Amino acid sequence: MKEENITTTDIISDENLVYKKTDLMTDKTLSYCPGCGHGTAHRIIMEVVEEMDMTEDTIGIAPVGCSVLAYEFMNIDMQQAAHGRAPALATGIKRTWPDKMIFTYQGDGDLAAIGTAETIHACNRGENFLIVFINNGIYGMTGGQMAPTTLPGMKSSTSPYGRDVKLMGNPLKITELVAELPGTYYVTRQAVHTPANVRKTKRAIKTAFKNQMENKGGLNFVEIVSNCNSGWKMSPVDANNWMVENMFPFYPLGDIKLDGEKVNKE
């Protein structure tokens, strides 16, 4: 009797399939540092695009920094922007093709430093697209320098003794800042370090795209607090623990603005 070569794929039926990688993530191996939140953030954004059947109508914009790698892993139409200019480019694309689903994918050095003007004015104008903001409190790709979001006392390559607020100013809570602007419709801060947080962040991304799809008249802003274990000089586990103990008290998770109204957390 001739033996047949039976593979694992042959015996997995749809009802037994626990997880399948979205087709909107390329097969290229992620080049982010082990433990980094970028890969998880990429995956859930692409899962939402696929689940909402928006593949042919979605355009992502990634500027300079670790986020610049996004177009190598997201299997949709992508456009690279100059450092900090993603919201300006997103404005042009959305106004040219208002039926397209547009999102930017930006780090804190990009969005809250060189791109502060573009961020603030796009939010204030109420442009109808989504900004995904990855906040790890540091310049991750270019050498671990202090960013606008670096915490007081936090060490970096340009603040080796810790951020001195008297000399270097206070960290910029850009998400709370844009929530005050009348042009923002949905503003939230989430994380991706645990399965529960991943689910919450995915719901936030889906809400933001739904708001854009329904043209609810304002910009959607989703911050994801993440780690940078390489820049922080920690193991992935230690970096996540440090993030929970230090980043979350300063950048608390949760919705800040819903349906154009600030959330009362008192």
Secondary-structure blueprint:
Elements: H1 8-11, H2 38-51, E1 58-62, H3 70-73, E2 77-80, H4 86-96, E3 101-107, H5 108-114, H6 116-125, E4 130-135, H7 165-168, H8 174-179, E5 184-191, H9 195-213, E6 219-225, H10 229-232, H11 236-250, E7 254-258, E8 261-262
Parallel strand pairs: 1-2, 1-3, 3-4, 4-6, 5-6
Antiparallel strand pairs: 5-7, 7-8
Helix pairs in contact: 2-9, 5-6
- Kindly report the average pLDDT value: 92
Largest sheet: 8 strands, mixed
Number of helices: 11
Q: What is Rg? A: 19 Å
Sheet with most strands: strand arrangement: 2-1-3-4-6-5-7-8
Strand content: 15-25%
What CATH architecture would you give?
3-Layer(aba) Sandwich
Number of domains: 1
Query: How far is the N terminus from the C terminus?
Result: 74 Å
Provide the CATH superfamily: Thiamin diphosphate (ThDP)-binding fold, Pyr/PP domains
DSSP helix fraction: 25-40%
What do we call the CATH topology? Rossmann fold
Structural class: alpha/beta
Order of helical and strand elements: HHEHEHEHHEHHEHEHHEE
Task: Give start-end ranges of low-pLDDT stretches.
Answer: none
* Number of strand segments: 8
Please give the CATH class: Alpha Beta
Question: Outline, from the CA principal axes?
Answer: globular
